[in-house]
Amino acid sequence: MASYILRRLLLIIPTLLGILVVNFVLTQFVPGGPIEQTLANIQGRGDVFGGFSGGQGADVASQELLGSGDSQYPGAQGLPPEFIEQLEREFGFDKPPLERFLNMVWDYARFDFGESYFRSISVTDLVLEKMPVSISLGLWTTLIAYLVSVPLGITKAVRDGSSFDTYTSALIIVAYAIPSFLFAIVLLVVFAGGSYFQIFPLRGLTSDNFESLSFGAKILDYAWHITLPVAAMTISAFATLTLLTKNSFLDEIKKQYVITARAKGLGERQVLYGHVFRNAMLIIIAGFPGVFIGVFFTGSIIIETIFSLDGLGRLGFEATLQRDYPVIFGTLFLFGLIGLLVNILSDLCYVLVDPRIDFEKREG
């Protein structure tokens, strides 16, 4: 097992390198880089895309005020060439793309992610600042999804075909069909003072007076704020995981070893949790990295925006809009690294659940 883990750890290096290569190449062809963003802000458009449409009036005014000048950047007409060159040096675009990429790889190998272009803070500090919000959402969503879905899926498998199974399946299908962002909006309208009740807060993870509260009051305040975001994020993961658990247990219940165990006089509970549970849970454990990573990163972008939560999802979204490349590449690197490490952890959980699994023999 040690050699298998070592090989998986070594595979992380080319995988992360591939992620950086693909995204670095893509950014070379995407219009509206950080320099164009800065120029748009200077000229009062406040939007990098303003330089691509209807900007002739601003460009003419700039030429009259600052003189003429040619530039490869849209929206730079009329600005002194020296100013453009200074911007290129500040953002590191005065070097060839290959040199910039190699410097970035060397820095990332030492976990030096640089500094944000527009926030005057290191990417590491920025990620650490936003991490607690995303951890809160991802941890509680995944925990609640598993605590509800696994027992419900087992019950549905045991009572397959009953009215309970039919009604819960209908509810699960409806829940799966509802987008998390739409459910979040409904929760806000109904429970956060939109049109009906004002039970939960509209935004944020804590109250303004959070620091002055007692320990118990802090826990209640935190739970009060996180209830709606977690409920909105849990709905899709809850539906998928319940059906996955049910189908996994159904598949195991029909196997010969279960029939043999029952024939030997073992009780239904002993058969279910002593024999079926271990085998059926393998596929549930295999799906854990996908559920956790999806909730932790992808699923939290829209929810964080709707509930005004300052987490990693919102950070990555805003960095993409601003073309803040150090933040984009730094978060991609960290997200990729965490995802790969969680996959290795999933394999270790396989072995803990069923020691008969030997990944080294399977690879051989």
UniProtKB/TrEMBL annotation:
Chief location: membrane
Q: Which residues form the ABC transmembrane type-1 domain?
A: 131-346
Give the InterPro entries listed for this entry: MetI-like, MetI-like_sf
User: So where does this one cross the membrane?
Assistant: 9-30, 137-158, 170-197, 222-245, 282-307, 327-353
Query: Where found, per UniProt?
Result: Cell inner membrane; Cell membrane
The protein, known as: Microcin C transport system permease protein
Q: Tell me what topology the record assigns in the membrane.
A: Multi-pass membrane protein
Is Transport among this UniProt entry's keywords?
yes
Kindly state which keywords UniProt assigns to this record, in alphabetical order: Cell inner membrane, Cell membrane, Membrane, Transmembrane, Transmembrane helix, Transport
Superkingdom of origin organism? Bacteria
User: What does the entry list under GO cellular component?
Assistant: plasma membrane
Report whether Transmembrane helix shows up as a keyword of the record: yes
Q: Which family does it belong to?
A: Belongs to the binding-protein-dependent transport system permease family.
**GO annotation, biological process:** microcin transport; transmembrane transport
